[in-house]
Amino acid sequence: MHKTPTRIPQPGASKTPKKSSQITSDLNSTAKVEGKISFFSELASQRHARILRLSGSNINSFQGLKNFPNVRIINLQNNPVDFTLMSVLVAFRSLSIQTVSGVPVEHDDHVNSFNYSGLVTHALRQGMDPSLVDEDPSLAFTNALDFLHQYPDLYIINDQKITVKVKGDLYTWYILDEEFQWRPIEGELNTIVNPMNFPLRCEIKNASFGKGESQQVLKSMSVLIPEHDKCYHMFCELSGNAAEGDIISVKAPLSSTIEWKHLEDDSLIRSGTLVLPLTPDDVGHNIVCEVTPGPELPSTRLISSEVKPGEFRFKSLRLQGQLVENDEIEFDISTKGTRATFKGIRILRSARHGDWENIAFIQRAEDGALKYKLTVQDIGCVIRAVCITEGGGPPLMLTSSERVQPSAPRFTSGNIFGSMLVGMPIFAIANYEGGVQGNCRYEWSIGGSKSRPVIVPSDADTGKKISCIMTPIRSDGSIGQPIEVTNNKPITNNAKPMVERFLAFHKRTRTGKLQMSFVEKRPSEQLFVIHEKETIIVSTACDWAVVDSKGIHTIGQSKVFTAETEYIKGIVVLFTDTFFAIAGVIEAATPTANDVSIVCDKASAFLSASYLYSGGIEGRSIIQWNRNEGRGEVVAAFGKSFHIGLVDRGCTFRAIVTPVSLDGKRGVPTPSEPFLIDDSCITTDEKPVLTILPPDVVLYDTEINVVFQEDPMPDPEHIAYAVTSLPLTNRHKVIWQINNRTVKEGNSFTPSVNDIGKVIKICVIDRIRKETISSVDLPPVDSEDPSVENVRLTIEKVQNDEKKWVNRVTVFADFHGGIEGKSIIIWKGIKPGETEETECARNNRKWIEINETWDNAKIGVEYIPMNTTSDNPGHSVRSEFYTVPPLNTKPPKEVGIKSHRIVPNKEYTQLTCEVETIGKCSVLYDWGYIFENERQYTDETTKVHKIVQDDFEFPLFCGLRVLDDKNRPIAEEFCDLLDTASPLFDPKVFKATIMPAEKPTDVKQDKNQEKELLFTHGQELKVVLNDYQGPPITSKSVRWERKFGDSWKKIIESETYTTTMNDFNCDIRAVINIVVKHRVLDKPRSCEYTTPEVRVSGKNKIIRRMAKALKRTKRAVFEARMPLGEKVTILFENGNLILKNGANILLRSPFPTVALEIYDSQPSTLALRARHGYNTELTFSEKKMSGGTKFSAAQTRELFYRALNRFQKGR
Fold first, then answer.
1. Which of 130, 537, 983, 1115 is a Cys-bridge partner for 87, taking CB atoms 3.0 to 4.6 Å apart?
2. Do 165 and 154 touch, CB atoms closer than 8 A?
3. Where are the alpha helices (DSSP H) in 606-650?
């Protein structure tokens, strides 16, 4: 059952306090903050505290500090760092502070704190030593720049134009906001115009310094620009549209002094207000807003853009919300700044056919209001308002965002009609509002059926006063508030009582009429339903009447009664001299469309559907237009009308009407007869004629396309086009004929070699009329003149038929112009020592064979192309001259050793002497040691030497003797090991890199360019040894470190490491320790290598996307173990984090009260803290999501961290 929509707001409490609220809900928890903490970030959830008692804590800087707007008293004594009064005032930037570490704060102290730039506050909150805030503001500013790693003199200021002098690829600008965080602002160049009330920052990508060889490039650097006077200014900002009739506002503390002025003459407009309405006097001026937070404090000067003249305004807030029947829509119109004259508003609604229906034209009332009241006819429709003006351009239009909904069903003007006599009918009548009326309920005080709005009192009711409780019910079942109507006239006896008879349905006649008969007993408690347009026939002539909300309507005396549409929901009563009867209630019939026909307006060439509707109030009936080109009907459009054109001539159209009532009931679709579009339906001065313009030349093997003259012709060099004057549709058929024989059907055709010299004919045929509309003969099919290009030769040494070696020269070329015939090849050469060309041969072959007489000569060809369709040769093309290699080549004389070296094998058990030789030869090997500068040989004579203990005491060498192909010695060399074998066993790592344990799926690398990897939190990393030299590794350990300032802190020792949010925007590295053991070594040897640092700056898309998906479902479930191994289930639901052990709930805490701490030393464990001092550790294991994604234990911990963060932020 559909309930009536309501617009009454439901009471409820906001779950999050307003940002502007300074009053907390729990004063006990936020008024004071006490305890030992290490960082100010631990106080993020208590930023409305008024007292901060932090003495004896472990705080050594202001790092992580946020704004505390209500703080009054701060105690920071006995901390590792001495927090001076000025450093506290500069770091907190709150005028509410009264006492710092027991020292009262004077007004002069606040004034002096404003002499320190906002960059000093930013540096303090980033972790700068508080002792660097010197009594001299300029010295403190210098210390802040040093802490923030800034280079001096990198920008130029000219008036309010700031120019950065560093060259780069991309510039991004930021401003320091009220939380002392960098907020991005507009600007992409190295210059920006800014009043410099607040510090600016320019982020430069690929910044370059210097020129030539001394040029340095930094991937990223920042340039900080302080305030124009290097003093702190309270952060304020303007908002609003600077235009006449609008307002602009300033975001500033309420206690500030605010003045609005004109920039040009500094004249005061208004003061003491946060908003300024803009009037015609402000047009063309720049508005200045000066905000002064207190006496003797620097003011913030904000300047708006130039105020524009007012624009034509036409709006209605009511149209943007929910629209309900009987609502009044108000319109706001302003023509300021224009010459437009307002005439009125035309109201349209989406018609039943999908078009727009004009329903009203409203003008200003006496009170100046512009209103339109929604009616029952508007239910289910979209409302559109068009503002009609004169002299102001095109009309402005507003359209409702939702359809009109019915109002809650209700009865008004209730009354009881009747003679109040015993035995006479009494009727309960009321006006119904709220959509389409359904079967309402009627509860009479004297009994009777609850479904009948009529009752007949008996003798027992004499003297009673009748009342009726009427409950309105809409057709969709929605129930409204009941009303009670009473007739104060009591029921009296009837002097001439009438007898009540009842009508019973007998049968339906052939013409569809209902034949009824009179009976003595009531056939049913329910009233008989008489549908609209139905006719009742009785045996006796009676006086007929209809009772509805408008009263009693007398119909007349007759044996028949026809139910009309205007009497729907009325009760039909008939009377005679002796009796009366209640015939029934009139209801709407099933929606029906009759007499559907198509009407053609020849002046506008529009087809419209005409039909008669019955079935209550018509709703959004559907009209479908079908078009038939001779291939069957296809749907062409929907709507009340359809525009036809020249392409529709000869086609038939059919309109199919599906009637729909206002309450959504749909009838049977009713089609019209086919309507033929002939020449009389389209008005035109001259009927266009389809003509075809043939191409100038038709070549074989070249495609011919038939296209419309306005269509694109993308490749005119390789495609011939036959151009038509009118576009071709599915109704047209294109055929290609040769010698009156159809060879192809379609819009394209490619002639073959067999078609050369023949004439092709193009015919366009009307598929419906079966006649030729247009035809054209193309020029005879021809071929291009023969031509060649890219003539080239190859020379290959082969044996001829006589088994003699010869050089075979072959010619290749790219031929164009038909099929190649007997092209003429003229072979020409230049022998060594000659300068003139000599013709070697002239033939039609593509190759010749030459003997040794042409060794070292140059040879080329002249190519004269010929095709098979013409006797005329094409233009000749000559190739380059190629040098003929000699047939008898001598072997190289040089024989010997090119290079040699001694290398260990993979297991470091033997050494191999690798030798590279020149020419055909062999090598003999003799191994030995150098003892007392003399070479002494061993018995080893192979290229492989087994490593022994002597290799670590004496230098090793290998003697090499070279023998020619006849085993004659021709050379002798020595391959020396520069030292003993001991250095070979020292492990060395030349290169190692940090890589993802799994290859990223979203990183694409070009073949010639290696892209930098993006490391993300929650990513499993490993160390890859890219270049290692030494014996096989016995053991390897990896220590992962994170950079803190200038030092490195150990994270964990593990082969792999899964990054956490602790690593986000931080540098990490791996320290590798390698140990090797070998049987020939006395003790193990080791080496240590530190990888290049990498930055974890990317966001883990999979974890973040999965966390976002969990937040979207508003529920999440995790499994973990507590410190003693108990299994717990963690639920995120209804704004709470719930910790369950089986059926026991261990913890239920709202999301904002939960804090997490990630342990570096334990990859899958984190600490959880909640309200009331709850503290525990959770250890996660692998987690497999429903979608198939599998997370490791460390990644599951990261997903839990990110998901909780999402739920806490509410997004």
1. 130
2. yes
3. none
pLDDT given for residue 893 in this prediction: 62
What is the CATH class of 988-998+1015-1096?
Answer: mainly beta
Identify the burial level of 436 via C-beta atoms within 10 angstroms of its C-beta, where 0-12 means exposed, 13-18 middle and 19 or more buried: buried
Give the tokens for residue 38: 């290490």
Instruction: Give the whole-angstrom CA distance, residue 62 versus residue 685.
Output: 87
What interhelical angle do 1101-1113 and 1193-1209 show, nearest 10? 50
**Backbone torsions φ then ψ of 120, nearest 5 degrees:** -65, -45
Question: Nearest-CA neighbor of 1120 among 1131, 1136, 1110?
Answer: 1131
Task: Give me the pLDDT at residue 1010, please.
Answer: 43
What 930-939 contacts at long range (C-beta under 8 Å, 24+ apart), as own/partner pairs, is: 930/954, 930/955, 930/956, 930/957, 930/976, 935/959, 935/974
**Considering the domain 787-884 in this protein, what is its CATH number?**
2.60.40
- Say which CATH topology domain 1100-1210 has: PH-domain like (2.30.29)
Fold of 692-781: Immunoglobulin-like (2.60.40)
Q: Dihedrals φ, ψ of 119, to 5°?
A: -65, -30
Q: Which residues contact 258 (CB under 8 A, 6 or more apart)?
A: 250, 252, 271, 272, 273, 274, 289, 290, 291, 292
Q: Which two tokens stand for residue 533?
A: 């347009």
Contact at 8 Å (CB) between 1038 and 989? no
Could you tell me which of 422, 390, 384, 419 has the C-alpha nearest to residue 404?
384
Q: How confident is the model at residue 891 (pLDDT cuts 50, 70, 90)?
A: low
Query: Residue with structure tokens 């039609």?
Result: 844
Q: d(Cα 43, Cα 53) in Å, to the nearest integer?
A: 12
Distance CA 811, CA 796 (A): 12
- State residue 1103 phi and psi, 5-degree precision: -65, -45
> Residue 960's pLDDT is what?
92
pLDDT tens-digit readout, 413-465: 888 888 888 888 888 888 888 888 888 888 888 887 777 888 888 888 888 88
* Alpha carbon distance 194, 176 (integer Å): 13
Are the C-beta atoms of residues 491 and 420 closer than 8 Å to each other? yes
Per the CB < 8 A criterion, the answer to whether 92 and 76 are in contact is no
For the domain bounded by 498-587, which CATH number is listed?
2.60.40
For residue 277, pLDDT over 90 is answered with no
> For the chain, what's the residue count?
1211
Q: Structural domain boundaries of the chain?
A: 29-149, 156-233, 237-307, 313-399, 498-587, 592-677, 692-781, 787-884, 988-998+1015-1096, 1100-1210
Q: Are 1160 and 1052 in contact (CB under 8 A)?
A: yes
Cβ atoms 74, 101 nearer than 8 A: yes
Query: 444 is written with which tokens?
Result: 């009479």
Q: Considering the domain 313-399 in this protein, what is its CATH number?
A: 2.60.40.2700
Asked if domains 592-677 and 692-781 share a fold, the reply is: yes
CATH architecture, range 237-307: Sandwich (2.60)
Token readout for 441 is 């309920």
pLDDT for the residue numbered 1000: 55
As a whole number of angstroms, the distance between CA 765 and CA 785 comes to 36
Whether residue 408 contacts residue 326, with contact meaning beta carbons closer than 8 Å, is answered with: no
Strand extents, DSSP E, 533-632: 535-548, 551-562, 571-575, 579-587, 592-601, 606-614, 622-628
What tokens were used for 1201?
């961290």
